[in-house]
Amino acid sequence: MANYDVIVIGAGPGGYVCAIRCAQLGLKTAVVEGRETLGGTCLNVGCIPSKALLHASHSLHEAQHNFAKMGLKGKAPSVDWKQMLAYKDEVIEGNTKGIEFLFKKNKIDWIKGWATIPAAGKVQVGDDTHEAKNIIIASGSEPASLPGVEVDEKTVVTSTGALELGKIPKSMVVIGAGVIGLELGSVYARLGAEVTVVEFLDVITPGMDGEVQKTFQRILKKQGLNFVMGAAVQKTEVARGKAKVTYKLMKKDTEHEIEADTVLVATGRKPYTAGLGLDKLGIEMTQRGQIKVGKDWQTNVPGIYAIGDVIEGPMLAHKAEDEGMAAAEQVAGKHGHVNYGVIPGVIYTTPEVANVGETEQSLKEAGRAYKVGKFMFMGNGRAKANFAGDGFVKILADKETDRILGAHIIGPAAGELIHEVCVAMEFGASAEDLALTCHAHPTYSEAVREAALACGDGPIHS
Ligand code: FAD
Ligand code: NAI
After folding, report:
1. Which residues line ligand 1 (CB under 6 A)?
2. Residue whose CA is closest, atom 23 of ligand 2?
C-alpha cells in the first residue's frame, strides 16, 4: 500500500506509455496489470504475435513463389509449426520483458493483480487499497461476441486462439473481412489452409477507400482467399473437431452451410471494463460501452481519466500510445494533445494497405472540393524489381489550396510510406510540397512523390 501521484490500470500500449511519460514528468507512478506479462493485448495476443506470424508466413510465400524467378533454386522450406509458434513466443517475450525493463528504469511500480476503483483516489488490488491523486484507466478491449457462435478457442477461435492453434488447419472460415480476419486469414492461407472469408457487407475492410477495397480484394483472391460477401452468419456448430458455419446470403435470402477445421471469429472488439466498478462510481459511458472522456481524457469523475481502446476512436495501439502520452501531460499540468485527423491505419498483409485522413467518400459527404493524385506501383522501378508492382498511392488534396487531406496506399511497404504523408499533413503541407521534395531513387517512396505530382502537372512515370 502506497500513495502515488498516478495509478494506471492496464499495461497495454496506452497504459505502459502513459506510465513511462508520467514517470519522466516526475510523477510517482504505478501500473496495475492482471496479466502475467506487461504489454497488454498488443504485445501478448495482438500486434506483435500477429506480425511475427505474418513475417514467417510471408517469408515462406516468397521462397515458394519468387525465389526461383530470381535464380534462387532449391527445395522451398517446409513448415515446422511448433518452431514457428516458438519463434512467435520468443518475439512476445522479448517485447514484454522490454517493458519490464523500462518500468524498472523509470522506477514505475508494477502492482500485480486486477484493479477495482472503490472511490476516486483509491485503487483496490486484492486486499490492498492504494491511494492515487490521479487514476488512468487503460483497460483495453476484448473480442466482440456473435449470437449463435460459441468460441471454444480450439475449433471456433478469436484472434487469441488463432495465434496458437495446435496445428495448421486444412480449412478455415474467417467470419469478418476486417483487419484481423484478413491479416490472420492471409497467414493461414500462406501456410496452406483453404481460407474462406464470410463478410456481412458487400465490401471488405469497411470505411476504407473504395478503390483500395476493390484492389485489395482482387489481390487477396489471387493469393487464394475465397470470399462470401453479403452474408450474415447465423450460427456455428462443432462436432468431432470440425465446425459447421451457417450463413444467410442477404440479397437472395437463402441459407447456406460451410464446413471447416477452424473458424476464426473476427467481427470487431469491444471495450473491456469488467470488475473496475465504473457503475458504482457513476462514470458516464457511451451507448457502445466506451468510457466517455473530455478533451483532457478526464471522465465525468474528477481525477479519473481513460485512454486507448476503452474510449472512443480507432482501436489502434498507436492511438492508445498517443493518448497515453497526452493524458500524462495533462495530469502533469501540461498541454497534451492528439491530432485525431492524422492517425494512420495499416493492414500488414502483402501487399500492405495504409491510410490516413479523409477518404473520397468522407470528402463527398462533407461537400468539400478535392483533387486526386494517383500513381500505380507498376511505374515504380524498385517495386517492379521486387515483384511488388501491384497497387497504388492515392493522395487527396484540397481543390483550391492543394493542402493534403488524406492518402491511401496499397503496395509494398505501404505501412512505412504512409508516414511521409502523415508528417506532411501535420505540417499543413500541400501536395506540391511533397512533389517538390527530392526522393531517392530507386525507392518505393518515389511512388508517393509521383502521386503528389499527379495532384499538379502530372506524374513522370505513367
Ligand atoms: P490493451 O492493449 O488491451 O491493454 C489493456 C490491459 O489492461 C490488458 O493487459 C489487461 O489485462 C489490462 N487490464 C484490464 N482490466 C484490468 C484491471 N481491472 N486490472 C488490471 N489490469 C487490467 N493495433 C495496431 O495499431 N496495429 C496492429 O498491428 C494491431 N494488431 C492487432 C492484432 C490483433 C490480433 C489484435 C487483437 C489487436 C491488434 N491491434 C493492433 C489493436 C491493439 O492491440 C489495441 O488497439 C491496443 O492493444 C490497445 O491498447 P490499450 O492499452 O488500450 O489496451
Ligand atoms: P473490424 O472492425 O476491422 O472488422 C470486422 C468485420 O466483421 C467487418 O468487416 C464487419 O462488417 C464484419 N462483420 C461484423 N459482423 C459480422 C457478421 N455477423 N457476419 C459477417 N461479418 C461480420 O474488426 P476486427 O478485424 O475484429 O479487428 C478489431 C480491431 O482490432 C479493429 O478495430 C482494428 O483496428 C484492430 N486491429 C488492428 C490491426 C492493425 O492495425 N493492423 C490488426 C488487427 C486488429
Report:
1. 9-15, 32-35, 40-42, 46-47, 50, 114-115, 138-141, 159, 180, 272, 275-276, 308-309, 315-318, 320, 348
2. 268
Q: 363-372, long-range: CB within 8 Å, 24+ apart, which pairs?
A: 363/396, 363/405, 363/406, 368/398, 368/405, 369/398, 369/399, 369/400, 370/396, 370/397, 370/398, 370/399, 370/405, 371/396, 371/397, 371/398, 371/399, 371/431, 371/455, 372/396, 372/454, 372/455
C-alpha cell at 361: 467518400
Cell of 105: 528504469
Ligand nearest to the CA of 236: 2
Q: Note the pLDDT tens digit of each residue in 187-246.
A: 999 999 999 999 999 999 999 999 999 999 999 999 999 999 999 999 999 999 899 999
pTM above 0.80, yes or no: yes
The residue type of 343 is I
User: Of 243, 194, 249, which is closest to residue 223 (Cα–Cα)?
Assistant: 194
Question: Is 348 touching ligand 2 by the criterion CB < 6 Å?
Answer: yes
ipTM above 0.95, yes or no: yes
Q: Which residues lie across from 306 on neighbouring strands?
A: 137
Please state, in angstroms and rounded to a whole number, the distance separating the CA atoms of residues 37 and 132.
Answer: 23
